[in-house]
Amino acid sequence: MARINKVGHVVLNVKDVEASAKFYREALGMEVMRLREGNAAFLSFGSQHHDIALFKAPEGAELSKLGLNHIAFQISGGETELRQLYGGLVQHGAKVDYTTDHGMTHSVYFFDPDGNRLEIFCEMMDPETGMKHMREGVNLSDRSYKPEPILSA
Asked: What is the three-class DSSP state of 123?
């Protein structure tokens, strides 16, 4: 039987395509693959044609509590790299929501310029152990995790 194996891409409605594309490029290191004059941008982490698309929201669109909760991005590396990316977010003025230890991951939750909640995380277990951890119903709620962001010079 065919199976879906990962998120292919995410499309977000944003107020200002150029400002949002700049945030994703500068704060998250994404490459702008295509920019369509103020109404769309397609961005990549470098391994596929696009991971995120940003579309211009209709005029007067209001932020809503319904719909997308957050998008999670797995980082390459571990704790040090997570703290470096966290530092970059702080330096780019991102509003950090919270940090947490989920057991199998350490995570930083934050908002993009349009209020979309995003997560960057590093794996703390190998995939097999992480799957076992999840299946066993371990409490994934917030555990104390207060990493010190590493700021670039």
From this structure: strand
Q: Which strands sit side by side in the sheet containing 105-111, from one edge to the other? A: 71-74, 117-123, 105-111, 95-101
Structure tokens at 4: 């879906």
Tell me the CATH number for domain 69-153: 3.10.180.10
The 10s digit of each residue's pLDDT in 96-144 is 999 998 888 899 999 999 899 999 989 898 888 887 877 776 665 657 7
| Start and end residues for every CATH 3.10.180.10 domain found in the chain | 8-58, 69-153
Q: Return the pLDDT at 23.
A: 95
If you search the block for the tokens 């997308």, which residue do you land on? Answer: 68
CATH 3.10.180.10 corresponds to the domain 8-58: yes
Q: Quick count: other Cβ atoms within 10 Å of Cβ 43?
A: 21
pTM for this predicted structure:
0.76
Helix-helix angle 79-91:17-28, to 10 degrees: 140
98 contacts 146 by C-beta, under 8 angstroms: no
CA distance 56 to 39: 5
Average pLDDT over the chain, rounded to an integer: 86
Counting every residue, how long is the chain? 153
